[in-house]
């Protein structure tokens, strides 16, 4: 299931993924929210708090996620993936070289920092 992170800054489409993630999660929540943000800000600042295993994404969810990326390719500004899974963190950091905009991974305990970075491109100073 995907839910909206309510404390996200206005210019950030922020979601939390738990349990099984389906195509409907993207169709009914993620894609409309992303469209709203792109229409409003003409760029996409996106955060996904990944609190589930990647195995819990159905094939339909993976396809919708890929379509989301392709549809908004020119609008990507910043995207943060918040997870404690090292493989996902490394993939995100490598993926950032291939996509327009900035992509960055953050450990789960740094959710606030990730939201702040998505909002303005800076990290909170420790």
Automatic annotation (TrEMBL):
InterPro entries: SpoIIAA-like, SpoIIAA-like_sf, STAS_dom_sf. It comes from the Bacteria. Coiled coil: none annotated. Pfam families: SpoIIAA-like. Gene3D superfamilies: SpoIIaa-like domains. Transmembrane segments: none annotated. This is SpoIIAA-like. It comes from Chryseobacterium arachidis.
């Amino acid at each position: 299931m995907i839910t909206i992170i309510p404390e996200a800054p206005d210019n950030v489409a922020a979601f939390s993924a738990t349990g099984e993630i389906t195509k409907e999660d993207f169709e009914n929540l993620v894609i409309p929210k992303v469209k709203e943000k792109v229409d409003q800000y003409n760029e996409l600042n996106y955060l996904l708090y990944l609190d589930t295993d990647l195995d819990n994404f159905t094939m339909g969810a993976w396809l919708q996620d890929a379509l989301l990326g392709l549809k908004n390719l020119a609008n990507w500004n910043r995207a943060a993936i918040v997870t404690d899974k090292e493989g996902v963190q490394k993939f995100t950091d490598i993926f950032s070289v291939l996509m327009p905009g900035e992509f960055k991974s953050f450990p789960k305990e740094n959710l606030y920092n990730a939201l702040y970075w998505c909002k303005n491109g800076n990290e909170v100073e420790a």
